[in-house]
Each structure stands twice: as C-alpha cells, then as structure tokens.
Design brief:
44% of the residues lie in helices and 17% in strands. By secondary structure, it is an alpha/beta fold.
C-alpha cells in the first residue's frame, strides 16, 4: 500500500478537531486512506441513493449510530446534514467525531463555511507524489517520461491498469458526473473540447478571451468552466508574484493541470516515448515539478505560497516559493544534461533580485552546485528544496 504523506497531518487533525474535511479529486485515494487509518469508524457514501434515502428518513438516528466516529463521503449531496452535525459537535465538544470527504470542493466547503466554521480542519489529498509512489516496494522503477505519462492516480498502479483506458474512462465519468450535475452543461462535447484546449495551454499564460474564441463560448462561460475545473481539482492557476521587482511585469496567471497523466491523455500522447519527443514535454515536466512542491505543502496542511515571475522584457523564473518575503527561486528544465542555457534565466533573475537561493531542477539524476546555483535532479524530494527557504 502507498504511504500517503498526509497521514500524520490527518491524524493530528482528527485528534484536535470535532470535524475534519478531506477534499481532493475523484480517485485520489481519499476513501482508501480514511478507511485504512480509521477502521473503527462507520463509513457511508451519500452518493449511494439507498444510503441517502435511509439518512433522510432519520438524520439524528443516523448520525448517532457510531459514537466512536463516522466517515461521511460526498456529504454535500445532503446539505441539511451539516446543521445536524453542528448541533452534535457543539453539544459533545469531542475531537474526531466526523470526517467529511468529497470531490466537489466548492459545494462541500460552502456548506462547511456556513455551519461548521471554527470547528473544522480542512485538508486536501492530491494524486500520488513521487515519494508516495516509491513508498510501495511492489512498484516498478519508472523513468522520467514513464512517471509523467503514468500520472499519479493510485488505482492505475494498484490494479496494473492500462492508463490510456483508465484516463479515458475517468474523463467520461467526470463529464457525466460533475460537469452535468454541477453546472448543468448540456453540450458535453463542447466542454470536452474546452478541456482539451486547456490542456494545450498547460503551463502557459491564461488568456480567457483567446480560450473562449477557440472554444466557441463566451467569456462568462470560460470563467464558469474554469471555476469548475479548479473546484474539482483538475486545474489550478499559478499567480504571478505580487512584488514588482521590475515595474514591467506580467500580471496574468498561468494555467496548470494537477496531474501530468491527464494532460497526456487530453493531448493524445500515446506513450512515454511519444511524450519524450512531444512539443509539450517541457511544459508537462514543469507542471509536474510544481505539482510535487504543491503536494508537499498540502500534505502538511499548509497553503502553498507558490508563484511565478516574468518581466515584459522576457526575464522569467518558473517558480517562486515565498516564505514571509524570503524567496526560493526555481527554474525547471526537462533536459537530462545540464547546459549553460538552462542557467540563463536564474542568472538574469539574480541581476534583478540578488539572491543565492536559486535552484535548477532538471531531468537528470545528479545533484550538484554550479557556482551559487543548486542543481537538483527531478528525483530530489521537494522538502529538500522547500526547507532551503527556511534557512536564515
């Protein structure tokens, strides 16, 4: 079984808060993790129509069935249940009473904010990080391109599935379940096209007008559909850094997908070898490294202070980690052999903001220093880079 990095944080929250909420994309392993860690808890999914009917018949009786604790999956399917939970936790004031999980983030968090504010710990579980993947000794060692092509959804590895078939089914299920139910999108073919157009912009500045024109939809619809993708943990926006070290800076966010395997599927990439030669390989590698850093922060229950920086004159660094103004700077290159050109963006950055805390993450397997720049293999654990920003 995979050892999830979130485990210590999750256990700490359960012992401290009456309600813990665990969100994340479908199939990221939320239910597996919760049922493994808390086997004495009663487990119920409100996406099951029979369960939902039984709960609605007598909510109070249902919520008191397992005094040792309950795991309620997709609780947002029954909005009124949150008020009942509030009443119970306010009366008993005991940690670890309820664990709520779900993949429809904005609906779940909205209900929690309305009724359970101050009583709840909020955590997110993304697909597997590389550290989590190698934690299971049964897993084969993967090359850089095999890793990116396979993505991080646990079931692919646990059941040794063909990832192309799995991702195709995942996309179809997502379209039918979340998209149709949450936004009542009638033209799923157009939304599927929109999803592919977003994949083609993975790692690029987000131009919503251009995206809307290419997809044949309005600017308002682009905003709604992007919000849905973000709420269901398909995509996220990486914001430009707020500190204008140079007045001529780009202020538009970048669009990324959380999972590299999903991007490959949407772009029609057919194998790891195909990816290694694909025009988007650099952007997919870049997104993978950023996602690895983000997973580290989320596994510790922290908001990821991640940004990028680009000037209008072309100076750019791929990732800034900002800890109270102390910056760790990352340039990310998929090449497997170090070249001087890879270091150029960091050298340009140092002229704008003199700093020694600069890292190049590349597709090779060796770690070493190149002058005042630390060169890190793609296999380097994110904490080794993140914790460098904690040094005084």
């Amino acid at each position: 079984m995979f050892q999830r990095e979130l485990t210590p944080t999750l256990q700490k929250c359960i012992s401290s808060f009456p309600v813990t909420v665990l969100t994340g994309p479908r199939q990221s392993g939320k239910t597996t993790l919760l049922r493994y860690l808390f086997p004495s808890y009663g487990y119920y999914s409100l996406e099951n129509p029979e369960t939902l009917l039984k709960v609605k018949a007598d909510v109070k009786a249902f919520l008191n069935r397992h005094p040792q604790g309950m795991i309620i999956d997709e609780a947002q399917a029954m909005p009124e249940i949150f008020s009942y939970i509030q009443s119970i936790v306010d009366e008993e004031k005991r940690p670890g009473q309820f664990i709520l999980s779900g993949s429809q983030n904005f609906l779940l968090i909205e209900k929690v904010s309305q009724t359970l504010a101050g009583r709840t710990a909020l955590l997110e579980l993304l697909p597997l990080s590389h550290k989590e993947y190698v934690s299971w000794s049964d897993m084969p060692e993967l090359s850089i391109w095999e890793t990116l092509y396979s993505g991080g959804y646990p079931r692919i590895f646990e059941q040794k599935l063909d990832q192309r078939i799995w991702y195709s089914s995942y996309i179809q299920t997502y379209l039918e379940r979340d998209v149709r139910n949450l936004l009542n999108v009638k033209d799923l073919i157009k939304f599927r096209q929109f999803l592919s157009l977003c994949a083609g912009r993975h790692g690029q500045l987000l131009n919503m007008n251009e995206l809307g024109n290419d997809a044949g939809i309005s600017h308002t619809t682009v905003k709604e559909w992007l919000a849905l993708l973000e709420a269901s943990f398909i995509t996220y926006r990486l914001a430009p850094h707020f500190n204008n070290f140079n007045k001529q800076v780009v202020k538009t966010p970048k669009l990324y997908f959380y999972d590299s395997g999903l991007v490959c599927q949407l772009l029609g990439i057919e194998s790891a070898n195909h990816l290694s030669q694909h025009v988007t390989r650099g952007a997919i590698f870049e997104g993978y490294i950023i996602s690895e850093v983000m997973k580290w922060y989320l596994s510790h229950g922290l908001k990821a202070p991640l940004y990028f920086w680009r000037s209008r004159t072309g100076i750019e660094v791929d990732l800034l980690i900002d800890r109270a103004g102390s910056l760790t700077v990352l340039e990310i290159k998929s090449g497997q052999t170090l070249t001087t050109d890879m270091l150029k963006p960091l050298r340009q950055w140092q002229k704008v903001v003199p700093t020694s805390n600069c890292h190049l993450v590349y597709g090779g397997n060796e770690n070493f220093r190149q002058g005042d720049i630390q060169v890190n293999s793609w296999l380097t654990q994110p904490e080794a880079i993140i914790e460098s920003s904690f040094d005084d």
